[in-house]
Amino acid sequence: MFGRIFSTIAKRVTSSRLLLVLIIVLQVLYLLPALKQTTMGGWQDSIASTEVESIRMYRSSQSLDLNGYPEDDAVGSWHRANDIKMAQAADKLLDRWDAGDANGYFAAAAEYYLMSAKVQGYAGSVYNLDRAAFYQALADSGATQTYAVSSDAPALLYAAMGGKGLFMFPSGAIPIVYSSQGDGIYRYNSQVELLFWTVPLLAVCALGASTQTKQRLMTQAPLGARRRMLYGAASSALLGLAVLALICAPTLILQAVRAGVDDASYPVVVGSGASLVVSTVGEALLKSAVLYMLIAFTFSLLAHLSASVFDSVAPAVVASLCMMALPLAPGYYGEFSSYREVAPWLPSTYLWVEYAAGSIDSAMMPGARPLLGVSFVRGCVSLGAATFALSALLALLAPAGALVSWSSRLRRAASHRTGLRDAAMDKGAASPGMAAGSSHSPSSSFRPVLPTSSSLSVFASYTAALARMLLGGPALYALALIMAAALVVPAVFSVDTNVRDFSVESYKNMQLRQLYAQLESGAYAHDSDEYHMLQRQADALSGYVYSETSAKGYASLAEYERLRLEAAELPALAQNDPVGDPLRVEAKIALLEGLAASDQLELYNMSTRMPGSFYLSFVFGAAPFAFWLAPACVTALLIARHRCRGSLIQQAPVSFTVELGAGCVVASAIALAVLALVVIPGTAYATMRNGVGEMGYPVVFIQSGGVVATTVASALMSGAGVQALASAFVVVFLACIERATKSFRSVCVAAAVTLALAALAVNASALAPADSIVSVVLGWLPLTYLDVARVVGTAGYGLISGCGVSAFAACIVLAASLPVMVAAVYMVVRAQRARSLRVRDSSCVIRI
C-alpha cells in the first residue's frame, strides 16, 4: 500500500510544470559557479600571495630587533624567546613555500600563526588561531591542495563548499540577498542560500500533501486515515530529498569528470561558539544529509497536518515561509543577535544547514563563528522534536474526519442553495406571478417571488449568510493561529528590549570616568562655568550609579540628562559630549521622571520578564503595522473574492447599500475579533508569569515636534480605538474598490499599494519637520494613521518617533474618511449604471 501511495504522489509531483521549471532554474544556478573561468593552477595559486609576501616583508624588515629586549627582564626575555620562535617558524614556512611542499607549508603555517597569536596577544589571537587551526587540519589530513574557487573543487568538495554566491546578482537592490552592515556597503548575504534548498523541498511536500485534500488519495489507496497520512508524509519527504539530489546531480557529475571525486577525509573547520571544530568533508556531507532529511519530514508532516485539519495546504505553506523568513533577519546568526537565547533551540535556525553541519569556505578560512549553541546535535534534537510532535498530532487528528470538512461543508451548502433555487424557479414558473398573456418565455421573464420583509431583517439575514461563508473556510483560522504563535514567542523566549541607554555599568565605566578625567585634567579653571557644570554632572551621574533605590537613581539620571542639555550651550563641553537631537534627550528625561514616580517600576531588559499589560503594549509596537492590519485585509479580500466569483449570487437579492454595508460590518467585526483573540495567549502567559503589571507605567515618544508622555493604560485604550478605525478604513476602502471595479485582482493590487503608501506616509510624517507643509498635509491623510503604534505610543525604551498629529486627530481623520469613501463609490457606481443604461438604449435604437 505504501508503494501505491508513493506512486500516486510521485505522479502528482512530476506532473507539475511549475516544479519542473523551478528544478531547471535551480540546476542552472547550481551549475553557474562551476562554469566560471579560473587561472588557479595549484595550491600556491589558491593561497593568497599577499599572505606569503607579508611574511617575507616581516623577515626582511628591521622590525625584529632581538637586541632591543633587556636580558635581565623576565618580560623582555619572554618576548625575545617567542620572537625567535616566530622568526624560525616564518623561515620554515618560506622554505616550504619555495620548495613547493604543500603539506610541509601547511604544518609550518600552523606553527607560524600559533606563535603570532601568542606574541600579539588578544588583539590578533582570534584571526591567528583560526588560521592556525585551519592549516593544522590540512597538515594532519595529508592534503596537498587547497581550493579558493568552486570551479576547481572536486565533486565532494564542491558539494561541501558553502557560500557559492548562488543568488549573487549584479545589483545590491535586494535586501535579503545584499545586507548592509551599517557602513552603507552592501555585501552578499550567503544565508539567503537556505532558500535554494528549502523552497523546492516545500514545493514537493505541498504538492504531495495536496493529494490528501478533497479525498483525492482516499480513492487511490483505501486504507485508514492515520496510515494514509503518515505514508503520504513519508513519501513526500523522500520525493523532496530526491528532487534536491536531482538538482545537484548534473553539476556534481561534471565536477567528478573534470576534477575527480577527491577524498572524503579533506578537512572542514567550522566555528562552534567560542571554539573551532575540525571534521571532514564526508562527515559534513553526512550531517547535511541528516539535517535535510529532518527538514523534509518537518515540511511534509506540517503540510499533511494542514491537509488533515484544514483540507488545504495553504496554512502549512504560510507557516513554512515564516520559518524560512526568520533566519533571514539581519544579524540573526550574529554574536549579539537579539535571538541569541532562543535561536539555538528553534527549528528555523537549522534551515541553513551549513551553520550546524559545516562547510568549506571559498576564502580558505574557517567558517564564521555561528551563534553560540548552534550545533549539529542540537539541530537534530530541535528538528527531531518538531518531527515527533507533528507526527503525533497527525496520528491523533487524522482519524477525526470532521476536522477536514470545511470544503465539503461549503460544497454541501452550495448544493443545498442550488437545490432551493431550482425549486423556487420551478414553483415560480407555475405560479400566477407570471402574466398569462405574456409573449416571453417563462424562463426569460421569471422573477422569484420573495416574501416582503423590512430592510433591517434583510440586512441581518444577508450579514449572517456572509459571516457563515467567511467562517466556513480555513483562511481566517490559519491566520489567527499564525498570528497568535508569533505573539507568544517573545513571552516564551527572551527578546532583547534595548535598555543599553540605561546601563549602570556603561555610565560608570564610560561617562562617569570621562567626567572625572575632565575634572582632573586641569583644562578648566575651578571657578569657570565649565568646571561647575562638570561637577554637577558628575554628582548627578554618581547618584544614579550608586543609588540605593531605583526611584532615586532614575531621578538622578534625569537630572544628569537635563544638565547635558544645559551643557550644550557651553561650546567647550558640547564638543566632548554632543547632545545630538535635543528632543530625544527631553523624551528620555520624561521617561526617567515617570519611572522615578514609584519604587515599584523597573526596567525590563528581557521580554520574558514583562508583566501582561507592559507585554501587550510592547508587542503592539514591536510588530509591523501590516501585521495588525492583516485580519482586515484578509477578510476584505475574502469577501471580494466571493463576490467576484459569484458565490453570493445565490443569496437573496439585496440593494447596493445593504451589500456594501453588510460586507463592511462583517469584515470589520471578524477582523477585530481575530485581533482580540490572537493577543490573548501571549498576554495571558505573561500575566500568569509576571502579573498584570503597573498600568501607570510611563510611555514616552516623540510626535509632531514635541514629547508625548502617557501611560500603558492610556496607550492601550487609545490603541484599541484607533486600531479599530484603521481596520475599518482598510475594509471600507477595499470594499469600495471591489464595488467600483468588480475585479478581485484590482482589490489585491489596491491592498498592496495601500500598505506601501501607508509605510511611505508614516516614515515621511515621522521625518518631516513639525511646522512644514508636508507635515501638515500628511496630518490630514488617513494613510498616515494606519501605523497605530506610532500614533498612540507603546511601552519600551526606544523613544520612537511617532507619526501624525495625535490619537484624537487620528480618530477624526479615519472616522471622517469612511463616509467620504462610501459616498464616492456610491456616485461612481451610479455613474457606471447610468452609462450602461445609455449604452443599452443606444444599442436598442440601432437594432430598431
UniProtKB/TrEMBL annotation:
Low complexity bias spans: 428-444
Domain of life: Bacteria
Keyword Transmembrane recorded: yes
Residues passing through the membrane, by range: 194-210, 230-252, 264-282, 289-307, 385-406, 475-493, 614-639, 660-686, 706-735, 747-768, 807-829
Region (Disordered): 423-444
Keywords: Membrane, Transmembrane, Transmembrane helix
Presence of the UniProt keyword Transmembrane in the record: yes
Entry protein name: Uncharacterized protein
